[in-house]
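fold-stage: in
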Amino acid sequence: MNAHAAASRLWRWKSRLARNPVLYGAYAVFTRRLLPESALVRIPFGPARGMRWRLRRGDAPWMALGVYEPAVSACLERILRPADVFFDVGAHAGYFSLVASRCVGPTGRVVAFEPAPANAERILEHVELNGLEGVVRVERAAVCDGPGTATFVLTDRDANCHLARWGADSARRRPGDRLEVACTTLDAAVRTHGTPRCVKVDVEGAELAVLQGAVGLLSARDDVHWLVSCHGVELQRQVEARLKQSGLLVRPVEGFEHMLHACRD
């Protein structure tokens, strides 16, 4: 069994476990003891193997193990080449930015967009820990349909922070959890950083807003690959329709069906 197959099997096991509250609670306690808060580890498996990672409460422990969402990592490894540009929209703690940095190499560029202050600081720490200052740039902004500012909601799980205008109503909030953040668009990012080979989008409900701010990039004839995580069945239908409207071929990512992969070939 190769590394990706093993990681995928572990991820499927975890997903099944999450459906049982009692077993998942026991799993959460075990992983917290196995991977203590603030510990600095080297990722032992997967495409980020050997990279350094700082553990924080609320992280998926699978990031520290290198087997987080293996289907997405496999897509990045297939798509990205040395010297490519990668946009990580909704980068959280930077796990996929690390994976992508290894794919594009020292002559490539990874741009991690993350408006949540604590998350952005974590990405910067991981960049410094792994000597990637020349490859990974952190943009402290939300990507949506236009420039300016917007209200951003900090949830009890850092991975589920979202723009208030589009985020899921079901997200639990803590007191004092709203702040104004800078906003940008993918078309503006292209003017600054160049055309990406791949754009990964995970923005907790604002997927259509991201696409609305990427009219130029979507209409370009460049071979751009899109990996869009969709939060809800109806939203996934709308995102798929918008991507197809731009002439892209769209299909679910095998093993991670709520993420769509779109490209021209």
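fold-stage: in (second)
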Amino acid sequence: MALTPAPEGDDVASGTTAGGSLSGVPNTKDVRNEQGEAWVEIRRGLTPRWGRVIADAMVNLVALGAGLASWAYVDGAARWPWIVASGLWTGYWLHAHSLFLHESAHYNLAPSRRANDLLASLMYTPLFGVTVATYRRIHWQHHRFLGMEGDTEISYCRPLNFRRLIGDLCGLGAIAAALRYASVSARGSTAQRQGRGGMRATLPIAGLFHSGLVLGLWLAWGVAAAASWLFGVLSYFMLQAVRQTLEHRAPSAGGRVLASPAEQGPVNRIFGEDFFSRTFGGAGFNKHMLHHWDPTVSYTRLGDMQRFLECTPLRDRVSQSTTTYLATARKLWHG
């Protein structure tokens, strides 16, 4: 299956783009609220709140920095248990930071596309080993083929249990995802295959960045500090895979591994507005269903989108899809 390009200004409100339909997305093009206003008209006024984007992104960076700086104040026997505490903290905020790479893939990180991609390259490529251009091309297939053959982000095919968490914590899920990305890229166009070639350059950059950081921590505060960053990276892999599962796995899938996402079909959810939901599901992932319904809308305006939809015939679907991360985890857990 050849990759289709991410939309370049196409009207996705109808659930379709030049590349084809979006899986699991209703036709919102002609939806109107109780005042007779159409979504396509409302959406034109939902420009990103750039100040909030900057502030939210900075919170993640400050939190990451605070976790690293904490090693200056930890001495003696406390250093070894602090590996776990600091590592989990690092993994949590590294995961929150990574969610803005996704926002940049939809051109919502900076006002101009050139600035958007440049900023993403500076902030995310050294940490995550992928350019936004490569990620954008492959991520768009997730929108097109959610719950279908061709979906490129299928962590939700695996059940939520202890075995899976340990595997993700060891990076097994991340390795599988990287291999899948490379395989999907190989089936794409010449430009997309070049994107895969670009990963051969960016992955070593990320390797050098993390190696340098680990070495710096070791020299500054010892082996425990260096180990905490490595544990944080592994924690990030686990949290990323768990979050995607909570967004897209159907309870009907039970405790089995799905041979194909088509076995359950497209599933989407909306989560809470509390601090945990806005950081674990940062950059709008806590309103993930709305993002899938219209990927062009900035996460800073998804609240406006939800309020509009709650005054339309789609209100029941929005209400029925609203839950919490904890409630969803309880439904999906199969120890």
